[in-house]
């Protein structure tokens, strides 16, 4: 240790190093202070993409509240991930991207979930996401209804276009798709018909039941009553049909007979 104090060159080197360290620390502190000054503050937000929801005051206020929770720092120090996460917590927001725009702005691109069905008080997206949003009566009228266990929302969303495709050749428009707690399918149509598809291990088994109905479509169309019809496809060889015109069980050849035990 005595040698250190006697070595003037070493002491000078250490002193220079300490001065440089102090200068760097001071520079960092000054830079941090400088970047936090008001002339680098964010004072403008630009929303692009699906922004129709922002026109509603409650939604606008909620976004401002969420942004307020995610904002801290100025243009250089603001954490964009906090801003993005605060908006992602809104149920109708599917995805967001955030970027800074020099010198005082943040641009936020919002993509919202698109509803394919009404799910009680919420809506169902094509990806099976349940969310809340604001729709006009006209927009709601264009959606079909869907019901089922919340845990099966993805399955219902995937099956809706498949079911629509099955019945499109018949000219029937799907109005409601219901999946029971036992995972049995029921479909309602705008013409008043209700079709029990039942349960099946594979979609192809359900499609086969619809095919049997297609083969007897002339009979079905002739016997749909003024209030629609109830059609049960859960029989192995045919289906049951009830309307204000008839109540019978038929096979694909439209011959009345006992078709055996029906599937669940």
Give a structural overview.
The chain is elongated, with a radius of gyration of 33 Å. The longest helix has 28 residues. By secondary structure, the protein is of the alpha/beta class. About 3% of the residues have low confidence. The protein folds into two domains: 71 residues, Ubiquitin-like (UB roll) (Roll), CATH 3.10.20.310; 135 residues, Rossmann fold (3-Layer(aba) Sandwich). A hairpin with a 4-residue loop joins strand 9 and strand 10. It has eight helices and 13 strands.
Short recap of the structure:
This protein is α/β, with parallel strands linked by helices and 264 residues long.
Features:
Rossmann fold, 264 residues, 24% strand, alpha/beta, 8 helices, three-stranded mixed beta sheet
- CATH superfamily name of the largest domain? Cell division protein FtsQ/DivIB
Choose one word for the global shape: elongated
Secondary-structure-based class equals: alpha/beta
By DSSP, the count of extended strands is 13
User: Ranges with pLDDT <50 over ≥5 residues?
Assistant: 253-260
What is the CATH C-level name of the largest domain? Alpha Beta
Spatial order of the strands forming the largest sheet: 6-5-4-7-8-9-10-11-12-13
Summarize the helices and strands and which ones pair or pack.
Blueprint: H1 2-6, H2 8-35, E1 44-49, H3 57-70, H4 80-88, E2 93-101, E3 105-112, E4 117-119, E5 122-124, E6 130-131, H5 137-141, E7 144-147, H6 153-167, E8 174-179, E9 185-189, E10 194-198, H7 203-215, H8 217-223, E11 230-232, E12 238-242, E13 247-251
Parallel strand pairs: 1-3, 4-7, 7-8, 10-11
Antiparallel strand pairs: 2-3, 4-5, 5-6, 8-9, 9-10, 11-12, 12-13
Helix pairs in contact: 3-4
